[in-house]
Each structure stands twice: as structure tokens, then as C-alpha cells.
């Protein structure tokens, strides 16, 4: 009142909000969006175009109006590692599918019917009307159901040929989670165990040529490994200061990451390191930070998000070389979620 009666400016809380409306922001974004991006968005809405987490329908080579045999029930935030494996398999095999999004337990409730009929765990696939749970069971069911319609991701020897690598993948999952959740100062043995498993994986990759676990072609084995390896690289860097993508120690694992990042299905489902570092604790019940990761945490928490850091080598591979395209995508995500902002 004193400021107002004295002729001065009103308090900050009373000043006119000059921020543009959400509609005005949308109009500005539309005006700056190239025709190519508009066309891609139309293709995605019609079930075509490149893979993207935003797609609710994927038709590939099927005609318009085709009713897919497969419905994938996956988490809405693309956090679930098990969903990622099945999602990538459908993309790689170009199997038409629909998407239904279900909350993970760590961030929302699930529909009663889903809880009752599936037990509540993700992913779930409805194939020809039948509900199938457990990611590995789903992946083998899809291989069987579409063996005449899509190229197999299994080697000629089938399950028997890849079982040793599947066992190695299980060892990696246990070793990673064992160290990630080990208390500070008590994780020495857990770290050594994880490094031992990484050496085994690097050796397995060294025995083939082409970057993937079975050679020059991506297989089901790579899909089984991808989710936890991606999350291990991000989470151990953040919480422990440890790099899985260390070319001096694990050159073949680094080459595998490079090979995976050449696949559009992996790039579409791949997340950033900060997201993984933040979304794993609610899923796992906590992650244990060690002093060795302080510098990396400072960078991933925002230190490398500044203009001054653009000339420096980032901790994680950049997904965008086009800065303006990245800004438009960020604006699109913000505007699309404005009711929750």
C-alpha cells in the first residue's frame, strides 16, 4: 500500500504477468517448425514414420486401417527397462502394434483390470487376444508368432545357442544392482564383482566381429543386454563415478554401444543420463552415492547444461547435432504438458 500510495511500482506479486499464453507459445512453435518436422508428425500419427516414444500405433508396411495383432502395454514415461526390450524387438522386426500406456507402481496406480489379469507387472503384450507377461516370454512368443512374417532375431541354434549369453546378462544385472545399491564404503567387493562381469562381457564381444554379441547383425541377445547396460553406464557414472563406456578398459563394450546407437529403434528408446539417475531410485528403493562420483554428479545435475560448457566434451553422447531442433522438441514437450506445469 505504501508503495502504491507513494506512486512507486506495485509489489512484484501485483505486477502484470507479461508471459505469453500457452496458445501463443504453440503458435510461435508452429511458425518455427519446418515442413519436414510437420510431415514426420503426421506420419507418426498415422502409424508410419521413424520410431518414437510418442507413437500409439505402428503399421510399418501394413495398409491403412489394418488392425494389429499385437498391443504393447508399457509405461507412459519410457522408464521401464523390460518394456524397452520388447519395444525394440517390435520395431526391429517391423511387427505392427498398438501401444497402451500403464503407470509404473513408483509413479501411479494401475487399472484394476490390469492388476487383476496380469499381476500388474510391465510389460504385457496382447497377442491375438491372449495376454502374455514377462519380457523374455513375450520376446520368444513374438519370435514364434511371426517366424513366417519377419526375419528372426534368433540364431540358427535358437535358445540353446544363446543360453550362455543370457546367463551372462543375468549376472550383469545382479552385479550392477548389487554395486549400485551397496552402501558407501562397503561396495569394494561389489565393484570388483561388477568389473569382473564387464570383463567377461567385453571378452564375449571380442570373440565376434561386427559390434554385436552374435556378430555383424543385431540379435535378440543385444536386446536382452541393452536396457541394463544403458542404465548401468548412466547410473554408475552418476552415483559411483565409474564408466562402463571406458574404451581403455572395455573397448568392445564401447564398440557395442556405438553399434546399438546406429539403430533407430535404440535411439528412439534411449534416455539421457540424468533421467536414468533420477528415475532409478524410486524404482529400486534407492541408489547409493559415493564420493568418487561427486564431479560427475555436479556435471549431470546441470553443470554441463550451461552455454559455457558447450565447447567441452559432454559426459553423455549428444542426441542432437541440430540445436534449434532440440529447442523445438523441448518446447513441444513443455507445451504438451502445460496443464501439469
Count, helices:
14
Order of helices and strands: HHHEEHEHEEHHHHHHHHH
Q: How many beta-strand runs?
A: 5
How widely separated are the two ends? 31 Å
Percentage of residues in helical conformation: 40-55%
Strand count, sense and barrel status of the largest sheet are:
5 strands, mixed
Compute the average pLDDT.
91
Computed over alpha carbons, the radius of gyration is 23 Å
Structural class by helix and strand composition: alpha+beta
Keywords:
single chain; five-stranded mixed β-sheet; 14 helices; alpha+beta
Short description:
The chain is an alpha+beta fold and 341 residues long.
Task: Describe what you observe in this structure.
This protein has 341 residues and is an alpha+beta fold. Helices cover 50% and strands 6% of the residues. It contains 14 helices and 5 strands. It has a 5-stranded mixed β-sheet, with helices on one face. A hairpin with a 2-residue loop joins strand 4 and strand 5. Helix 9 packs across helix 12. The model has no long low-confidence stretch (mean pLDDT 91).
What order do the helices and strands come in, and which of them pair?
Layout: H1 2-5, H2 22-32, H3 35-45, E1 57-58, E2 70-75, H4 81-93, E3 97-102, H5 112-118, E4 124-127, E5 130-133, H6 135-145, H7 158-180, H8 188-206, H9 220-240, H10 251-260, H11 264-269, H12 273-284, H13 294-300, H14 323-336
Parallel strand pairs: 2-3
Antiparallel strand pairs: 1-3, 2-4, 4-5
Amino acid at each position: 500500500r505504501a508503495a502504491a500510495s507513494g506512486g512507486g511500482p506495485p509489489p512484484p506479486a501485483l505486477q502484470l504477468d507479461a508471459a505469453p499464453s500457452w496458445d501463443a507459445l504453440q503458435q510461435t512453435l508452429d511458425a518455427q517448425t519446418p515442413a519436414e518436422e510437420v510431415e514426420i508428425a503426421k506420419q507418426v500419427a498415422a502409424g508410419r514414420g521413424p520410431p518414437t516414444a510418442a507413437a500409439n500405433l505402428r503399421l510399418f508396411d501394413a495398409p491403412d486401417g489394418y488392425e494389429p495383432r499385437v498391443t504393447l502395454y508399457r509405461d507412459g514415461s519410457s522408464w521401464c527397462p523390460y518394456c524397452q526390450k520388447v519395444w525394440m524387438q517390435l520395431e526391429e522386426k517391423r511387427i505392427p502394434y498398438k501401444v497402451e500406456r500403464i503407470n509404473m507402481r513408483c509413479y501411479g496406480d494401475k487399472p484394476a483390470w490390469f492388476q487383476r489379469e496380469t499381476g500388474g507387472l510391465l510389460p504385457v503384450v496382447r497377442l491375438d487376444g491372449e495376454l502374455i507377461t514377462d519380457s523374455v516370454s513375450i520376446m520368444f512368443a513374438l519370435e514364434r508368432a511371426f517366424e513366417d512374417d519377419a526375419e528372426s532375431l534368433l540364431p540358427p541354434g535358437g535358445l540353446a545357442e544363446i543360453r550362455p549369453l543370457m546367463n551372462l546378462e543375468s549376472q550383469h544385472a545382479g552385479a550392477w544392482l548389487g554395486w549400485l545399491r551397496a552402501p558407501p564404503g562397503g561396495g569394494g567387493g561389489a565393484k570388483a564383482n561388477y568389473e569382473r562381469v564387464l570383463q567377461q562381457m567385453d571378452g564375449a564381444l571380442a570373440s565376434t566381429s561386427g559390434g554385436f554379441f552374435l556378430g555383424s547383425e543385431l540379435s535378440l541377445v543385444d536386446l536382452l543386454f541393452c536396457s541394463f547396460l544403458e542404465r548401468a553406464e548412466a547410473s554408475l557414472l552418476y552415483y559411483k563415478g565409474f564408466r562402463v563406456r571406458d574404451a581403455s578398459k572395455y573397448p568392445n563394450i564401447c564398440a557395442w554401444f556405438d553399434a546399438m546407437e546406429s539403430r533407430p529403434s535404440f535411439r528412439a528408446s534411449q534416455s539421457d543420463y540424468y533421467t536414468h539417475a533420477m528415475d532409478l531410485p524410486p524404482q529400486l528403493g534407492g541408489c547409493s552415492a559415493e564420493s568418487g562420483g561427486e564431479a560427475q554428479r555436479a556435471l549431470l545435475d546441470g553443470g554441463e547444461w550451461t552455454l559455457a560448457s558447450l565447447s567441452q566434451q559432454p559426459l553423455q553422447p549428444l542426441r542432437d547435432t541440430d540445436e534449434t531442433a532440440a529447442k523445438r522438441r523441448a518446447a513441444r514437450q513443455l507445451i504438451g504438458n502445460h496443464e501439469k506445469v
